[in-house]
Design brief:
Blueprint: H1 2-7, H2 11-17, H3 53-61, H4 87-91, H5 100-105, H6 118-121, E1 138-143, E2 150-155, E3 170-174, E4 185-189, E5 195-200, H7 217-224, H8 231-254, H9 262-276, H10 284-302, H11 317-338, H12 348-351, H13 358-367, H14 377-385, H15 403-413, H16 415-421, E6 425-429, H17 433-445, E7 449-453, H18 478-487, E8 495-497, H19 508-511, E9 516-520, H20 524-537, E10 540-547, E11 550-556, E12 561-563, E13 573-579, E14 586-589, E15 602-606, E16 620-621, E17 623-626, E18 629-631, E19 646-650, E20 654-656, H21 661-664, E21 670-671, H22 680-698, H23 707-720, H24 726-734, H25 741-760, E22 769-773, H26 796-811, E23 814-818, H27 822-834, E24 843-847, H28 872-883, E25 891-894, H29 908-912, E26 916-919, H30 924-928, H31 936-955, E27 959-965, E28 968-974, H32 995-1000, H33 1005-1020, H34 1022-1032, H35 1036-1040, H36 1047-1060, H37 1066-1091, H38 1122-1138, H39 1147-1156, H40 1185-1194, H41 1220-1234, H42 1242-1249, H43 1257-1276, E29 1286-1290, E30 1295-1299, E31 1307-1309, E32 1312-1314, E33 1320-1322, H44 1328-1339, E34 1342-1348, E35 1351-1355, H45 1360-1366, ...
Parallel strand pairs: 6-7, 6-9, 7-8, 9-10, 21-22, 23-24, 23-26, 24-25, 26-27, 33-38
Antiparallel strand pairs: 1-2, 3-4, 4-5, 10-11, 11-22, 12-20, 13-14, 13-19, 14-18, 15-16, 15-19, 17-18, 27-28, 28-29, 29-30, 31-32, 34-35, 34-36, 36-37, 36-38
Length: about 1400
């Protein structure tokens, strides 16, 4: 083992000493880390297949000598040195069920010092008595000759001669003498005999059959840390270990929390170590000691039952299984130390794993070792027995993807893309702002691992854009300083540091082993060197750089890159009504919706009758003939089309050819980002090369605004392309040292998405050179060379572009941020980097009442798991203040939401004290949709967005708007007196599904999901609310049901929930669910087919059940059908929740009860009318007065149920344990079975039913960067519309589009033009007569109506008496008089709308009025 010998100095020694003996050195070989011999690290920070411990152990297995066929049951064996026991198990070890003869033939104990036979470890006899301490051994530490490892010999002691090495605690086991007490108790006492804790004991075996368990963990630590610990310290360590165990005992005994407070435990353990080793607490070695212990302590938490709960593992597999689990803890300790942080209280970041089951937790821990573990427990057990078995070393699958964390991203990428990403290792070279931005987005997305390389020391200037760095990091390696904070973002993604020393450049040798290599701001010579190798070896390559307001990206994904889904859009589908039987094969679609296909698309078919050859056919290429027709090629040999059929688009893979960088520099393929700058990419292609040549020749970049340096760059660029725009190249040279966070956000978000494309093959990559600039963001007054010189500030990168004078404007700017979600977090990060509001006048207000949820952590990178449940605004404010201390006290998080109710907070004085507003409401739909189907939180965002738009118009403040929808994003700038407002234009509303389609004629899964969502409300929300209203509101039936039109049905529901069907046990809830199944999926369908038989025809003689109308079939309940049973389980549990009954999850119980239910016979009723289309009236039930009164008499009086209330369900889509999505999924899929519609997965149903907006961090980052580039213009006070840009992006295609904002529409009265920004202002609380007279005198306009809010104050047609009363009133009095409400004290002005007519009597539109009161 030559390589192992060089990396692990003791491995060869042990092998040489014991070549023919069954030794298992275990982790004894992992003592030193090559890169830092002073650090005692159990594993290298990175390792490949050849250096992994699994491979090492597999090779060592070949040396084992096995005789006989002795197998032992792993469940009966505990290897104490490897398995951290629970406190009770440790204090009272269970026997090891091995005979002496068996023990003689077993391998030596895994991970224990060599040459230690198992028979010497197992005591022949052991018993507990009142004076017996823990089973101890005498330890003697002696180094090997010429080695630093330990030689440990152990002298066993009998019970009578055992030295009391641990006097601190004594364990007792007694049988209580109290009468009636039958169980034993255990308790621990300190040296004085005072009882510390008490807990029930397991049933004990006879004393004579017990054997001592294997040596405890403390011996192992003493063995590996003897160069730190003296022999005396070994005794101390034993005390430390027992005390630490008691810490867990005490916390467990408390029984207050089921999950132990890790921080509390870590603090207690740290305190114990400090108590016994105060003089050594500052040494690295001791920190390794305490951290290693914590690794094992948390590992014990992770595997609470121990690894040997797995059965049927033979003696060969058992030690290996144990050693792997043990190495998990040690690797976590090593990872934490290598990351440069030793904050023990944060250990939960790696080891606290809140997944549903132990197997998922084990997989998650192992993923930190770069291993992908399959889903099933059986496969997991097999892998533990044989890790090198490739049959069970499978890729991570859907169940292993944490949908709670990645839910929004999954709706962008899908499971298949996420699985491919989980196998990709990404290398990022260069850790200034751009590299950090890319690494952040990739880590959040969830690749297999991210490795960073940048050994250069941190400078103050790096703080201008590198948000992971702090002032105290100056002088450290950039990668070393970045890694701990980067690793916090996603515990599923290991972060590695490639190491290196200052001045060392990346080499081909270092990039081997990665699937994607990203170079950030690396010289062209090095880019060419690396790309030459990656292009030839199938490694995806991306080079990116930013220079001030310029950015460049180059992609090379290899000669033939397969893109499996170029657009990411859902496949189109639609119903067809005919297919021609000829050479063209003309397909005609149902005329309800356009097919949406394009030339070159591919489709397949299903449910076609007659021309059955099309069903499931190979994808056929489409030629579009019209919005409802397309051709599919020759169908002349097919059968004659009869009816029906559905076409479905098939996404076809696309092969994309990339050229190497060396070739592409000569013949570039340029990607255009702004069609208004069509010739700009060619200029920048030459300009960036010239900049690289300048750097190569001068070992520096051009100086800020230096004309001489710029002239050289221009000449170099002209040598490459004589047609370059000299002004553009000059600005590029001027800004070469610039480092701007907004530009980095744009390029970093784009590059990160390109990395994900390379990993997943999802979405079309950029081909091949991208150049982007935002020269419009420069101030109107350009800075001088002197103004751009560095001043030793963290803002030097920005000063190099804008100058120090403009930096002062940025520092004193005042902004109001509405929302601190994904866009809000990115916005605050950028503001922190540019120093917004860091000056004496600067201030940032944030408002967001939303709290942090798990799904937020995938995109909202300012939040961590420890912040769950906290207010977003408060956590975000604290996080960015920590990024930039200049913002401490400058960011104010507000608890009051924006809206009419808080105008006393956000009043005129508030708006006068800010310079602009930024809306950060995250998604496009939330800001534009008025669909009633949008959930409450979306409606709230809509209201907030439009409300803030109105307030900005009223107070004439600039508004920056943005939103995302998956890979799509947009930005909009609203400038007073220049552009239209955000609310000036609206997208058309989404087309709603007709209610009759949802109720009786669904033809798509969306229809059944919408139906099941309504069923959820009709079963578990509305009836319960009605019952509670009946019990709590006086005269509820008379006041609420009188005009409802369905009073009979509602009264029947109340009777059902309070009398006839009120469950008393959970079994009755199961019966209710079973009957509900029968009603919805059998009886209702039978009734529909009775009213509209399958052979029914329309008035024109056509079959009724044709086209979009699919004839259903009733379902017969089958408890063996998983969907049927899932419905019963979910419905019964939700019904039980309504009535406060305890639920159940055991399928056997549901199956047994449901199968025993006697279902009443159903007979369809005649005369039932079915609404066939939207034009027909909805059939109303015949609510006879006598029937209603008779039903009312059956209701219990509310007084008889005083205090009794039911609990309505509050829909929560992100809680996978509450049965909400389970019910909707099962109900929808059962409905789909009725109508022969393809069922949907739970994941898809959750998105549709929960109205989940797809989101991904890359789009958010890019969009926020575009907004901040516009913010520079706002700060500069630009007033021309051509200076601003509205942006539209789609990273999937990819596509960039920019346009000037739409100018505010001009209107006119008389000869006066006006826009929405104009208004009439009246002061001193005038009377209505004063206002009417003013308009008549100054504009010759007659006021015909005056309104304020929802109150009409006066009109020309009101009575004479009212006019005489109201016209002389002061306006404030008039408003209070009409509205009958007092004007709040904070209101100083009123917005008034008027209608006027000119002298010809024609209505004229005029601006609104502002009346100062």
């Amino acid at each position: 083992m030559p390589y192992l010998r060089s990396r692990y100095p003791y491995a060869e020694y042990y092998s040489r000493q014991i070549p023919s003996t069954p030794y298992f050195p275990g982790t004894a070989v992992f003592v030193h880390h090559d890169t830092n011999p002073r650090q005692h690290s159990p594993l290298p920070s990175t390792f490949d297949t050849n250096t992994s411990p699994w491979n090492f152990f597999d090779k060592l297995k070949n040396m084992w000598s096995w005789k006989g066929n002795d197998l032992i049951s792993a469940r009966n064996v505990l290897y104490a040195p490897l398995y951290l026991p629970s406190p009770s198990e440790f204090l009272h070890p269970r026997p090891v069920a091995l005979s002496s003869s068996t023990a003689d033939r077993l391998p030596y104990v895994a991970s224990y010092p060599p040459r230690l036979p198992l028979q010497n470890i197992i005591n022949k006899t052991h018993a507990f008595d009142k004076s017996a301490a823990l089973p101890h051994v005498q330890r003697r530490i002696e180094p090997f000759a010429g080695e630093s490892a330990s030689k440990v010999s152990i002298a066993r002691h009998s019970k009578r001669s055992r030295p009391p090495l641990s006097p601190r605690h004594v364990v007792h086991e007694t049988r209580p003498r109290e009468e009636g007490v039958r169980k034993r108790v255990r308790f621990s006492t300190d040296i004085s005999g005072k009882e510390v804790s008490r807990l029930p004991s397991r049933k004990m075996r006879p004393v004579e059959s017990r054997r001592n368990r294997l040596l405890p963990f403390a011996d192992w630590i003493a063995y590996h840390c003897n160069n730190i610990l003296t022999e005396d310290n070994c005794s101390k360590l034993w005390v430390v270990f027992t005390e630490c165990m008691t810490v867990e005992v005490l916390i467990n005994i408390d029984r207050v929390m089921t999950i132990i407070d890790e921080k509390l435990v870590a603090e207690k353990i740290t305190f114990i170590f400090e108590k016994y080793f105060p003089e050594r607490i500052s040494f690295d070695g001791l920190e390794v000691l305490s951290t290693t212990f914590l690794a094992l302590w948390y590992l014990g938490r992770l595997f609470r039952r121990g690894i040997f709960c797995l059965s049927d593992v033979d003696a060969l597999g058992a030690p290996e299984a144990v050693i792997r689990v043990f190495l998990l803890g040690l690797t976590l300790a090593d990872k934490w130390l290598n990351d440069g942080s030793r904050r023990l209280k944060d250990w939960g970041k790696f080891c606290h794993i809140p997944l549903r089951d132990r197997a998922s937790a084990e997989r998650r821990a192992l993923r930190m070792l770069d291993y992908n573990i399959s889903i099933t427990n059986l496969e997991w057990r097999d892998w533990m027995a044989d890790p090198m078995n490739t049959a069970v070393s499978m890729d991570i699958d859907e169940a292993a993807i944490d949908e709670g964390l990645y839910s929004r991203q999954l709706y962008v990428l899908g499971h298949e893309a996420m699985k491919r990403m989980a196998t990709s290792n990404v290398l990022i070279v260069g850790l200034r702002g751009l590299g950090a931005e890319i690494a952040k987005n990739i880590a959040l997305a969830g690749v297999k691992s991210v490795t960073i390389f940048d050994p250069e020391p941190v400078t103050v200037q790096d703080l201008s854009s590198q948000f992971f760095l702090r002032t105290e990091d100056v002088g450290k390696s950039r990668a070393e300083a970045t890694l701990p904070r980067l690793a916090e973002l996603n515990s599923y993604v290991p972060i590695h540091n490639l190491g290196g020393v200052p001045g060392q450049q990346i080499t081909v040798e270092l990039v081997k082993g990665f699937q994607v290599v990203v170079l950030c701001n690396v010289p062209y010579e090095k880019q060419l060197e690396i790309n030459d190798w990656t292009h030839q070896n199938g490694v995806h390559f991306i080079a990116a750089e930013t220079r001030g307001l310029f950015g460049a990206v180059f992609n090379d994904f290899g000669p033939k890159f397969t893109c499996v889904d170029p657009t990411g859009e859902q496949p189109l589908t639609g119903m067809i009504v005919s297919v021609g039987q000829d050479s063209e094969g003309l397909v005609t679609c149902l005329d309800e919706t356009r097919h949406g296909l394009e030339d070159g698309n591919f489709v397949t078919f299903s449910e076609v009758q007659g021309m059955t050859e099309l069903n499931g056919c190979e994808p056929r290429k489409v030629t579009v003939k019209g919005p409802y027709t397309f051709t599919i090629g020759d169908t002349s040999n097919f059968g004659i089309y009869k009816s029906g059929g559905i076409f479905t688009q098939v996404k076809m893979p696309k092969i994309i050819e990339f050229k190497s960088l060396r070739e592409s520099l000569k013949t570039p393929e340029l990607f255009v980002t702004d069609f208004g700058k069509f010739d700009r990419p060619a200029t920048l292609h030459a300009g960036f090369q010239a900049l690289g040549q300048f750097h190569s020749q001068n070992s520096r970049l051009p100086r800020p605004r230096n004309a001489d340096d710029a002239a050289i760059v221009i000449s170099l660029a002209k040598a490459i392309d004589v047609d370059v725009d000299e002004k553009v190249v000059m600005e590029l040279a001027y800004q070469a040292t610039g480092d701007l966070s907004p530009m980095i956000a744009v390029i970093g978000g784009f590059v990160a998405q390109e990395v994900l494309k390379a990993c997943s093959a999802k979405f079309h990559p950029m081909v091949q050179h991208l150049y982007f600039d935002s020269l419009e963001s420069l101030p109107e007054t350009l800075p001088t060379e002197a103004d751009c010189q560095p001043i030793g500030s963290r803002y030097d990168g920005q000063i190099a572009v804008f100058g120090n004078t403009f930096q002062g404007k940025i520092a004193n700017h005042r902004q109001f941020l509405v929302g601190s979600g994904a866009i809000g977090c990115e916005m605050l990060k950028n503001w922190s980097m540019i120093g917004l509001a860091s000056g004496p006048r600067g201030i940032v207000h944030i408002t967001d009442l939303d709290t942090i949820e798990k799904s937020n952590l995938n995109r909202q990178f300012l939040f961590r798991a420890k912040d769950l449940g906290k207010f977003k605004a408060e956590v975000a404010a604290a996080a960015v203040s920590e990024m930039n201390p200049d913002l401490v006290g400058k960011i104010l998080a507000k608890q009051e939401p924006v809206g009419p109710d808080t105008e006393g907070v956000y009043d005129e004085a508030f708006f006068d004290a800010i310079d602009g507003v930024t809306n950060a409401l995250d998604n496009v739909k939330a800001r534009t949709s008025f669909s009633p189907e949008v959930e409450a939180f979306d409606n709230l965002d809509v209201v907030i967005g439009l409300y803030m738009d109105q307030r900005c118009v009223f107070f004439k403040k600039p508004l920056l708007e943005s939103g995302t929808l998956g890979t799509k994003g947009n930005t909009q700038v609203v400038i007073p007196d220049v552009t239209e407002s955000y609310g000036s234009s609206q997208d058309p509303p989404e087309k709603e599904t007709p209610s009759c389609t949802v109720k009786s004629f669904p033809n798509a899964i969306n229809h059944t999901i919408e139906w099941s969502r309504k069923q959820f409300e009709n079963l578990f929300i509305k009836p319960v609310q009605a019952v509670n209203a009946y019990l709590s509101e006086p005269n509820y039936l008379e006041t609420h049901l009188k005009y409802s039109g369905s009073s009979k049905e509602q009264i029947e529901q109340i009777i059902s929930y309070l009398v006839t069907d009120k469950p008393l046990t959970f079994e009755e809830c199961i019966v209710w669910a079973r009957l509900q199944f029968e009603r919805d999926y059998n009886n209702e369908i039978r009734q529909l087919l009775f009213s509209l038989p399958k052979d029914a025809v329309t008035t024109s003689g056509q079959p009724f059940w044709s086209g979009p109308k699919r004839a259903p079939d009733p379902l017969v309940f089958n408890s063996g059908d998983s969907t049927h049973l899932e419905y019963i389980i979910a419905a019964a549990n939700l019904h039980a929740f309504n009535f406060g009954l305890k639920g159940e999850r055991d399928p056997a119980i549901f199956r047994k009860v449901a199968d025993s239910v006697i279902v009443p016979e159903f007979t369809p009723r005649s005369g039932v009318r079915i609404q066939v289309n939207e034009n027909e009236p909805v059939a109303q039930a015949d609510d006879g007065a006598d029937d209603i009164e008779d039903m009312k008499s059956k209701l219990p009086s509310p007084s008889s149920l005083a205090g009794y209330r039911l609990t309505p369900v509050e829909f929560e889509k992100d809680d996978d344990t509450n049965f909400h999505i389970d019910f909707i999924t099962a109900a929808s899929n059962l409905r789909a079975m009725n109508y022969k519609i393809e069922p949907a997965s739970r994941h898809t149903t959750k998105q549709i039913a929960g109205k989940i907006i797809p989101a991904i961090a890359t789009t958010t980052s890019l969009v926020t960067g575009l907004v901040c580039l516009e913010l520079y213009k706002v700060i500069d006070g630009k007033s021309k519309i051509e200076h601003y840009r509205n942006g539209f992006v789609n990273l999937a295609l990819p596509f960039f589009g920019f346009s000037e904002p739409i100018a505010a529409a001009k209107k006119k009265y008389g000869t006066t033009e006006w826009t929405l920004w104009d208004r009439f202002e009246f002061t001193n609380d005038p009377t209505l007569n004063d206002i009417i007279a003013w308009f008549k005198t100054n504009h010759n306009l007659e006021i015909t109506m005056v309104s304020q809010g929802v109150s009409m104050l006066w009109s020309s047609f009101v009575g004479k008496k009212k006019s005489e009363e109201r016209l002389p009133m002061k306006f404030s009095k008039l408003v209070e008089h009409v509205s009958r409400k007092a004007i709040p004290p904070h209101v100083k002005q009123l917005v008034v709308e008027i209608m006027v007519s000119d002298e010809d009597g024609e209505d004229v539109e005029v601006p609104f009025l502002v009346v100062q009161i």
